[in-house]
Design goal:
five-stranded mixed beta sheet; BirA Bifunctional Protein, domain 2; Rossmann fold; 3 domains; homodimer; nine-stranded mixed beta sheet; 31 strands; alpha+beta; YbaK protein
């Protein structure tokens, strides 16, 4: 493609709306434009990347036995009501009515549609297993769409659904997908990590996420350098260190006056004891009921673990008015002693002796509090976020943390949707059985953004060769010099003939502008035709991720490029 | 692909909901399933056909200089208001609101989005021409979705938009697209015709439709066998025959009692004079005003021509109550003489002498009425549908009619949208100029259905090779016979190695079932491995559109298949 014909409107300024680097670069490099909050038009360069990602995904899905279909975006309200998710989904689902006042959703996911489809077509155990997938727009009405393609309202997903006879069949399908996903991210050329994940609202009992590593990632991964353990911090188990529980040294509980001391830091300063010897008490409303959660002052609550322990649908922090009415004290003076709401205690709190906590009376705290003696929690469970330095639940070594972007997620669903939508097959004994399902998603547009988030430098994007919009860009330094133009045209045609995807920058721009654009849009290989090298009948070849400039004989350039593409 | 693994749930019964053959066959052959009225899931076989159509379209668009992008389906209300089409589009547009109560449309077309995009990125005459296209779902909330993919509510379109400096540039872009469209339908292997078309609500001043010929087609094409003229009946001009106007023989107008005579046929029987000597008077409401239309009793009104002549936005037939109130007579007794509403007369009525028409008094008619003498119309214009036997407006020979399915439509838009959305470029003199636009659509999913509508027989679909889901199906007659299975497997692997798309029917079904399915799903080439031919080391090769069965030496089958694919 000649650059003069190619629609890639680059920008010199960093758009003010863009907070993260992928968002900035995709706008600046002319890959996309916003049409409304969280909704984008993909320009030609971005679409080429998307198609390459899609093709790699498609090939691996097909190889794993998946069959591609295409389901509707507009999905009838009835089947969402049948599964119970019409009301559960809340404001995140775009809804509309047709001219006959029938309700529809813009599909955020397709379990309802595909389970209904499969129910109609699968009758016998002979029809299973079945792996069906699609690549298609999905919709989520985010409160605050942001970060460009990372958290959009219209985005492209691959979603595969597996249908099996039983849990053993599901295991096989799940492993196939796990393997296929690894093959995909290997081929995409991205640094990634597979982590154990929480299954969330979608249900099910085993789940892994595929994380592209990037400092700006929204997800925190805890992992072990000794063994293979890696998990989303939302899921990662916090074990207790192997050291023995402390020797009993319980002292008498004392009520102390703590005027104006509300935060853990206040109390650290006031009492002179570290945050790890304080207790913080958080108040939540779980399905309408007020509950208290206690954990060490230096720890973070993990709401997903709490939700799983509470087995509730709806969970949010209580407001101070509600709390004060029930507990007669405000935030900052709450504590488990004498509290008249159920207490959920993090595991670690059991190990603490003589800790400090609120006295449920404004401006008073207790010290030397001890669990069991001074109060009894409803449940003691793992409720906090894992942190670097925690011990690996598998091998006991210290854990590390790293940030990542969730680009893929695989789930075992079991019979959640087949039960709700009555999808059964007849087994060999003539008995009806629920179909056992799994679902497997990849964010296609998010993977594009994640690639940019991981692969960039101060000058722009650095596309991995497998998904670069073009593999090569040829820049004649001076477009007015016939010999340069001729040499550039020669290489352009030869490379095209070899099936290489190449841009010839034939624009009447200064060389500096062309180099800047080439770096910004991130083409992996740059061939420069300049006066000096041309005199020696050579071209300059440079890799986008490398500072080195190779001088290559004109006759060898094509082969050099082909070899580089092959070997990367 | 092995048939045992392939998801193509065929049906023996014709689904009662399906009125036309493509709808019936696509359901029966397991190509698609309905999820709600006018909304379908494409199963693996259909998706393969769609992808092939898309690829042919994409290749020709790229060849013509088009650049592929991907625009959003959810489009903000503001830009539709800016173009004036938010209200104009009426009930056919799906609308929704997001959680912040902002309005969106599900895009029925993308002029607003792309004009806004181009306005933001195109600044100079040097940036034009620009041809951008996408392949993407479109939405139309049909009152009565029907005919399967022919008139769906969610469907797949290719839409290209051209942006040029001036009308001359638009001519060039338009011709490129015209040529590309012909290349596409040639490659698809369908019988089609290019016809002149009305530009309709989308605006503009030149327009062609690409029609796949089929008896069930909703569109009527009039065409000339002598010259190249062909037009949609909605658009086709009706010339007057070259014969001289009749000699003046006007007789005295007479009022006659016609009790109970209301239709043209009634009057033919009652007066003994043919329908071509009667006048029918139709009453319409155009933008709120009552108007009368008169044309020969044997002709059909063309509402599109009428709308164009009236230059109105809104046109519908008046109800009898409205008419009676204004004209003091009911339908069947109306006529132009003494009528107190504006009269729009079809061209032909000027040639008539001494005709019969209603007297604007129930149960009375006039005879020997003459235009000019007895009444004066507001406008005399071409207002009727062309018919077989009319004269060609180009060469004067008689016209023929044939039915077709509109699958492509190209328009010159001019500056309609660039004016509304203020999309300009700066010309060489530093002056701002409106960008001149064209738009060019192809119904991808509709083309799939049109192909089936045109290519089928009593046994099923007959896919053209270029878009068949698979090119070859291999059927071992008896799956229990090792030698047949072995020979079938051998051919299967050899063909796959040659890049042929092949199904091996390895199912444990009777041969009859396999043959029936192969015919139903319409695979172009069938290779049968039967006991008799196998004894001679031969296979039977049959084309789906041909009764002949060829016996081909086993060693020659692959080459025979490759040759057939190449030559068709």
């Amino acid at each position: 493609m000649k650059a003069s014909q190619l629609f890639f409107p680059t920008l010199r300024e960093v758009p003010s709306e863009a907070e993260i680097i992928s968002h900035q670069l995709l706008l600046r490099a002319g890959f996309m434009r916003k049409t409304s909050a969280g909704v984008y038009t993909y320009l030609p360069m971005a679409l080429r990347v998307l198609k390459k990602i899609e093709n790699i995904v498609r090939e691996e899905m097909d190889k794993a036995g998946g069959q591609e279909i295409l389901m509707p975006i507009i999905q009838p309200q009835e089947i969402w009501e049948k599964s119970g998710r019409w009301s559960l989904y809340g404001n995140e689902m775009f809804r509309l009515k047709d001219r006959h006042d029938r309700g529809f959703a813009l599909g955020p996911t397709h379990e309802e549609i595909i389970t209904t489809l499969v129910d109609g077509e699968v009758h016998s155990y002979r029809d299973l297993p079945l792996l069906l997938y699609q690549i298609q727009n999905k919709y989520r009405d985010e409160i605050r769409p942001r970060f460009g393609l990372m958290r959009g309202r219209e985005f492209i997903m691959k979603d595969l659904y597996s249908f099996d006879l039983d849990e053993a069949g599901l295991d096989v399908s799940y492993k196939k997908m796990y393997k296929a996903y690894k093959a995909i991210y290997d081929r995409l050329g991205l640094d990634y990590r597979v982590v154990e994940a929480d299954s969330g609202a979608i249900g099910g009992n085993e789940s892994h996420e595929f994380m592209v590593l990037a400092e700006s990632g929204e997800s925190v991964i805890v992992y072990c350098q000794k063994c293979d353990y890696a998990a989303n911090v939302e899921k990662a188990e916090c074990g207790l260190e192997k050291q023995e529980p402390p020797v009993n040294n319980q002292q008498e509980m004392i009520k102390i006056s703590t005027p104006g001391q509300r935060t853990i830091q206040d109390l650290v300063d006031f009492t002179g004891r570290p945050a790890s010897e304080q207790i913080k008490t958080l108040m939540y409303v779980a399905d309408g009921e007020l509950v208290a959660v206690i954990l060490r002052g230096d720890r973070e609550l993990n709401e997903i673990k709490l939700k799983n322990v509470l087995q509730c649908q709806d969970l949010f922090m209580a407001d101070e008015m509600t709390v004060r009415e029930k507990c007669q004290a405000g935030f900052g003076s709450l504590g488990p002693v004498g509290l008249n709401v159920p207490i959920y205690a993090d595991l670690e709190t059991e190990r603490l002796q003589n800790f400090t906590c609120g006295a449920n009376e404004d401006d008073y705290h207790f010290t030397n509090v001890n669990l069991g003696r001074d109060f009894v929690p409803e449940i003691i469970a793992d409720l906090r976020n894992a942190e670097a330095g925690d011990i690996c639940p598998v091998c006991g070594e210290p854990l590390y943390t790293i940030r990542g972007i969730e680009v893929g997620h695989i789930f075992k669903l079991g019979t959640k949707y087949s039960d709700a939508l009555d999808a059964t097959y007849r087994d060999q004994n003539g008995q009806d059985q629920a179909i056992v399902m799994g679902c497997y998603g990849i964010g296609i547009s998010r993977t594009l953004a994640a690639a940019v988030e991981q692969k960039n430098d101060a000058d722009g994007i650095i596309w991995p060769l497998a998904i670069a919009p073009y593999q090569v860009i040829i820049i004649p330094v001076n477009n007015k010099k016939d010999d340069q133009v001729e040499a550039a045209n020669y290489l352009y045609k030869e490379l095209l003939n070899q099936g290489v995807e190449v841009i010839l920058d034939d624009r009447d721009e200064r060389a500096g502008v062309k180099f800047k654009d080439a770096d910004l849009i991130g083409i992996p290989l740059r061939i420069t035709i300049g006066p000096k090298s041309l005199q020696e009948n050579k071209a300059e070849v440079k890799k986008r991720w490398d500072e080195e400039i190779l001088l290559v004989e004109m006759d060898h350039v094509v082969q050099h490029v082909l070899d580089t593409i092959k070997n990367v």
